[in-house]
Amino acid sequence: MLGILSAGVAPGLALLSYFYLKDEYEPEPVSFVLRTFIYGALLVFPIMFIQHVLEIEHLLKSDLVDAFLSSSLLEEFFKWFILFYAVYQHVEFDEPFDGIVYGVAVSLGFATVENIFYLIANGIEHAMTRALLPVSSHALFGVIMGYYIGKAKFTEGNKAKWVVLSLLLPFILHGFYDFILISLEHWLFIIFPFMIFLWWFGLRKVKKAKILSANHFKKQYPVQKTLHS
Fold first, then answer.
1. Alpha helix positions (H), the chain
2. How far apart are CA 74 and CA 178, in angstroms?
3. How far apart are alpha carbons 173 and 140 in whole angstroms?
4. Cα dihedral 48, 49, 50, 54 in deg (nearest 10)
5. Mind listing the pLDDT tens digit for each residue in 173-186?
6. Which of 75, 125, 136, 162 is the most buried if burial means most Cβ atoms within 10 Å?
């Protein structure tokens, strides 16, 4: 059991550490990042209950509905809800890149508990595949969600557009991810190119968020120029 717990937790904490250390401006308090991680972990239970009800009531009529409704919409909406209502207004959310840190934290909290349950049910031999696919994909959905949440908070003008994108894009990408796994016979040949694209897209958002944070701090703390005679 200790081996399963270790294998279940390690990928999530490793990815969270990776994205946390990407924050070059005023790193977030570890306590609040871990609290957000726990929020995400607790989401597993209501989501599993709703998914169970959908299944036993036979409301999932097709693979498409299963992928985009039961998995993608439910999971991404609850994660987005936590990020928007529990983190967005918090005093520690004080630069654009913080959205990525907290988006990854809530996503990996969920993914870690889900991963532990899966390994308990199916065996530790699936640990590597789970780390490379579900856990990594949840982290990247969190990156994308957090990027647009950060953009919404610190960009002047139409914030609603960025808030909508913070939910819409992870929902669409997560839906395609699950649809590939659920419905396609030769899913292995498609999922790895999809994951490469997801990493490329996510890391582009990391780079852009760093630029946004750099510009934010330049505005907050402008360099004082002195005149020399």
1. 2-20, 30-56, 63-65, 74-82, 98-122, 127-130, 136-154, 159-183, 188-220
2. 13
3. 10
4. 100
5. 999 999 999 887 78
6. 75
Instruction: Give the residue carrying structure tokens 């630029």.
Output: 211
Burial class (CB in 10 A: 0-12, 13-18, 19+), 25: middle
Q: What confidence tens digit (pLDDT) does each residue in 43-97 have?
A: 999 999 998 888 887 777 788 888 898 889 999 999 999 999 999 999 999 899 9
Pair of tokens at residue 138: 């949840």
CA–CA gap between residue 229 and residue 207 (Å, rounded): 40
Query: 146: which 2 tokens?
Result: 């957090």
Q: Using the 8-state DSSP alphabet, how is residue 112 labeled?
A: H
23 alpha-carbon distance from chain centroid: 16
- Token duo for residue 28: 């977030």
What integer is the mean pLDDT of 190-214? 94
Decide: helix, strand or coil at residue 182: helix
| Cα 87 versus chain centre, distance | 14
Residue type at 164? V
| Angle at 111 (CA atoms; ends 91, 149), nearest 5 degrees | 35
Choose among 217, 206, 213: nearest CA to 104: 206
CA 214 to each of CA 32, 33, 110, 224: distance values in angstroms, whole numbers, following the listed order: 22, 21, 30, 17
d(CA 179, CA 181): 5
Q: What is the Cα–Cα distance from 102 to 99, expressed in whole angstroms?
A: 5
Q: Count of CB atoms within 10 A of residue 144's CB? A: 25
